[in-house]
Amino acid sequence: MAVFPQQRQIYLIKVLKTIGDTKKRPAVIVSINIRNELSSTVLVVPFTSDLSSGNTPTRILLPAGEGGLQQASLAVCDSILAVRKQYLEQGPYGSISPSALQRIQAGIQIAIGVYP
Length: 116
Description:
This protein has helices spanning 33-38, 98-111, and strands at 9-14, 24-29, 41-48, 59-62, 73-76, 81-84, 88-95. The protein is of the alpha+beta class and 116 residues long.
């Protein structure tokens, strides 16, 4: 059994002050598992429960319950972060579905200018 964070899992993370956000929030691991195992960091996409920006090509709406999310949330694909594993505070809460990961990966591609 793997003892490292897995792609598609949701953890509560401490967001760094450098992006102007100091609260803890859920985030989904998007980096591939071999990287997750061997690196001291994982790549994550944070979630927000503020739905006011709406479902956009780079903000992907996931329903409450998906991957253990307590409320409907937007995956903020234009804010992908490299997070040290030590900042994965709680979790995993669950795993998002493969189709939800595909939607988030497409959002990341759009955010960096690689169009699917």
